[in-house]
Amino acid sequence: MALFDLPLDELRTYRSQSTEPEDFDAFWDKTLQQAREHQLDARFEPVETGLSTVEVYDVTFAGFGGHPVKGWLRLPAGATQPLPLIVEFIGYGGGRGLPHENLLWASTGRAHFAMDTRGQGSAWGGGGGTPDPVGAAPAYPGFMTRGVDAADNYYYRRVFTDAVRAVEAARSHPLTDAARTAVTGASQGGGIALAVGGLVPDLVAVAPDVPFLCDYPRAAVLTDRHPYREIGLFLKTHRGRSADVLRTLSYFDGVHFAARGRAPALFSAALEDQTCPPSTVFAAFNAWGHEDKGIEVYDFNDHEGGGPFQEAAQVRWLRSYA
C-alpha cells in the first residue's frame, strides 16, 4: 500500500475533530476512585526461568472492579537498589506471553512490568492469563464494540483502569523507583500508554509506538482494516447508531488523554500504516500537552512501524528520563 493518508506537512498540523465530553475528567475521576476502593493486593511470586541475567516475578493485582489482573515483573539479576521502571502494555489480541520473552528493558538495567490485557492473549504471541468477567451488550466479534452502548459499560474502561492500577502495582515493589516511572507500548499498547499518560500525572516519560485507539471519528471511516473496521461492521448492522457510538468512544479517545499528558513523550508513526493511520497518530501527538515531545516517522512502513529501529530509538531517548 502506497501513501494513502495526508501528506507529512499536513500531518504535522492536523487536529482531530473528536469532541471531548464535557464530563470527561469527572468520568475518569469517578472510575479510578471506584477502582481504588478495592485493595491493590499486588503479589509478586518468583518464577524459575533458567535465565541468569534476569529475574522474573509472576504478578497478580486488583484491577477494575477488583478483578485479578496478571503481569510479569522482570528485574536485572542481583538488583539491590530501586531501579527506573518501565511499564509496558500489549498490542491487540496479545497477552503478557511467557516469562522468558521480552527481555529488552530488563537488559538495559531497568525494572520492566508487562501487563496482561484482560480477555485477550489468544491471537498471537505466548498467550495471556487474565479473563474479563464483565458481560456486555451485543458486539461485533473483537473488543472494539464490547459495551459500546454506554461509556460505563465499554471494554476499554476496564482496560485503562487496569493499566493505571498496573502502574500502582509495579511501583509498590521495593526494587522499583516510583519517581522514575515511564510507560510504553505499541499499537493497542501505545493507545493504553496514552491513556495512562493522561491519567497518571507524575510519570517521567511516555513512549507510544504507532498508537491505536486515537481519533475514532477519522479512523472509523479512513481505514477498512481491523480492528477499527469492527466499528463500521457494528454500525452496518446497528443502523442509525453512529452518533451514540462515537459519543461512547469519545471517553476513550487517545487524543483527549494526550491533551492531559504532563510528561515528555516520544511517538512513532508509519506513513503506510493502514491499521493505525498516520493522521490518527499525529492527532494524538499534536494534542500532547507537554512541550518536550518528538515523533519518529517511518516513510515506507505499514503497521510494523519502526520495529527494532524504534526500540533502539526508545532506548536512546529514555536515557535522559528513566
Q: What does the model show?
A:
The chain is an alpha/beta fold and 322 residues long. It has a single domain, classed as Rossmann fold. Helices cover 31% and strands 20% of the residues. It has eleven helices and nine strands. Strands 1-2-3-5-4-6-7-8-9 form a nine-stranded mixed beta sheet, with helices on both faces. The longest helix has 17 residues. It is globular and about 55 Å long. GO terms for molecular function: cephalosporin-C deacetylase activity. InterPro entries: AB_hydrolase_fold, AXE1_dom, CE7. It is an enzyme of class 3 (hydrolase). Its EC number is 3.1.1.41.
List the helices and strands and how they pair.
Blueprint (H helix, E strand, L loop, with lengths): L7 H4 L12 H12 L7 E5 L6 E9 L5 E9 L6 E7 L14 H4 L3 E5 L39 H17 L4 E11 L1 H12 L5 E5 L6 H7 L6 H9 L4 H8 L4 H5 L6 E6 L7 H10 L5 E6 L9 H11 L4
Parallel strand pairs: 4-5, 4-6, 6-7, 7-8, 8-9
Antiparallel strand pairs: 1-2, 2-3, 3-5
Helix pairs in contact: 4-5
- Compute the number of strand runs: 9
| Beta-strand proportion | 15-25%
Percent helix: 25-40%
H/I helix tally? 11
Main-sheet strand order equals 1-2-3-5-4-6-7-8-9
Q: Could you give the order of the helices and strands?
A: HHEEEEHEHEHEHHHHEHEH
- Looking at the structure, what is the overall shape? globular
CATH class division: Alpha Beta
**Poorly predicted runs:** none
- Give me the secondary-structure category: alpha/beta
- The domain tally reads 1
Q: Oligomerization state of this entry? A: single chain
- Mean of residue pLDDT? 96
Instruction: Report Rg.
Output: 18 Å
The CATH topology is what?
Rossmann fold
Distance between the termini: 37 Å
What characterizes the major β-sheet?
A: 9 strands, mixed
Superfamily at the CATH H level? Alpha/Beta hydrolase fold, catalytic domain
What is the second-level CATH architecture?
3-Layer(aba) Sandwich
Protein name: Cephalosporin-C deacetylase
InterPro entries: AB_hydrolase_fold (IPR029058), AXE1_dom (IPR008391), CE7 (IPR039069)
GO molecular function: cephalosporin-C deacetylase activity
Enzyme class: hydrolase
